[in-house]
Design a protein that fits this description.
Number of helices: 12
Distance between the termini: 17 Å
Order of helices and strands: EHEHEEHHEHEHEEHEHEEHEHEHH
Helix content: 25-40%
Number of strands: 13
Structural class: alpha/beta
Radius of gyration: 20 Å
Length: 356
């Protein structure tokens, strides 16, 4: 008789904070995957920043713990994951799926210099002890190699997991774009000018298209701007299946990495404005020129003291978009193979964990 396994997922979704729907997608993808390969299993979720006293009982009863997109940051075990040391030192097997970083890409110095010694030491320990350890982008993977980690492997973002779309192709050759979604920027006070340029440019290139702004999290600056200027604005983070809005669009362009993932997974044309090290990781990993760096000059996490950004990056991405429109988006031809590869890598990881 099969014994039902308990999986504890340590997620990054801030339900009581920004409500970033992209983080929710990560958690849901892991639950979907584990439930698919291990029917009848039980999946519980805890937030990465919770206290040990709140999660201790769940850790003890778990058969396997999964760090969903481990957010590698400075002070990893003191601030970002206050109970991570307790998990690592427990006797419970654990895996790390699609770990990611926000490297200091907007600095002029070494982009890999942003981690403290304690975090590096912990990562090396986890690399040795974890049942499975994967990264979601080439910049993160190179960081791990740079630190001396031997077992971490590049698998892509687990949020690409969508076996129901395996084998589907991008619809290249058709220049008709009827609906466009623009995802909202993080750090809106610094990016509002770039957002205005982006919206105006998209409307100019596609004058007949229906354009909608989608908020992936609480973002009053962008929401108020849309209201004041009569722009369609959809707070998808409030919806149960908010990311399904990408089912009905033809094209996405914007700032949210999981808008990019959601669109590409659905074989919709998508363009990303890289705001920080997270966006840079996707830009370096996806094998097409469909993203453009647009950083503030004060750290990879966007802390900017109200500084604006150079909008030239927006014009550059709009130029790429215009070129692709004229060609029928031919550069997306074959990109589904890489998306399928990410999805299959996630499936393989789920199977390995279920068989552990």
């Amino acid at each position: 008789m099969n014994v039902m396994k308990n999986y504890l997922i340590i997620g990054t979704y801030p339900e009581k904070g920004s409500k970033n729907i992209g983080d929710k997608l990560i958690t849901e993808s892991v639950i979907k995957g584990m439930s698919s390969v291990d029917p009848g299993c039980k999946c519980e979720v805890v937030f990465r920043a919770d206290s040990w006293s709140n999660v201790q009982a769940k850790v003890k009863k778990a058969d396997h713990i999964i760090f969903a997109c481990l957010a590698v940051r400075y002070d990893l075990e003191k601030v970002v994951y206050p109970f991570i040391r307790n998990v690592v030192d427990s006797k419970t097997p654990y895996s790390v799926i699609s770990s990611g970083t926000s490297l200091l890409v907007s600095e002029s110095e070494d982009i890999y210099a942003g981690l403290d010694k304690a975090t590096i030491k912990l990562l090396l320990k986890m690399d040795e002890e974890a049942f499975l350890f994967s990264s979601r982008g080439v910049l993160t993977q190179f960081l791990f190699s740079y630190l001396g980690m031997k077992n971490a492997m590049l698998d892509g973002d687990v949020a690409f997991y969508s076996p129901e779309r395996q084998g589907l192709s991008f619809r290249v050759g058709d220049k008709k774009v009827r609906k466009i979604i623009i995802s909202d920027p993080h750090y809106a006070s610094s990016y509002i000018e770039s957002f205005i340029v982006l919206y105006s440019g998209v409307v100019s290139i596609f004058p007949m298209a229906d354009v909608e702004v989608c908020l992936h999290g609480i973002n009053p600056d962008v929401e108020n701007f849309c209201i004041e200027n009569g722009l369609k604005c959809n707070k998808i983070y409030e919806l149960n299946n908010g990311l399904n809005v990408y089912d009905s669009c033809d094209l996405h362009i914007g700032y949210r990495v999981h808008a990019h993932v959601s669109a590409l997974s659905r074989r919709k044309f998508s363009y990303l404005i890289e705001q920080d090290g997270r966006g840079a990781d996707y830009g370096a990993t996806i094998t097409r020129k469909i993203s453009q760096p647009c950083y503030v000059g004060n750290g990879g996490n966007g802390g900017n003291g109200g500084k604006g950004v150079n909008v030239s990056a927006i014009y550059q991405l709009l130029a790429i978009l215009y070129k692709d429109k004229e060609s029928g988006f031919i550069q997306f031809s074959g990109l589904e193979k890489q998306i399928d590869k990410f999805s299959m890598a996630a499936h393989d990881a789920f199977c390995k964990i279920a068989s552990a």
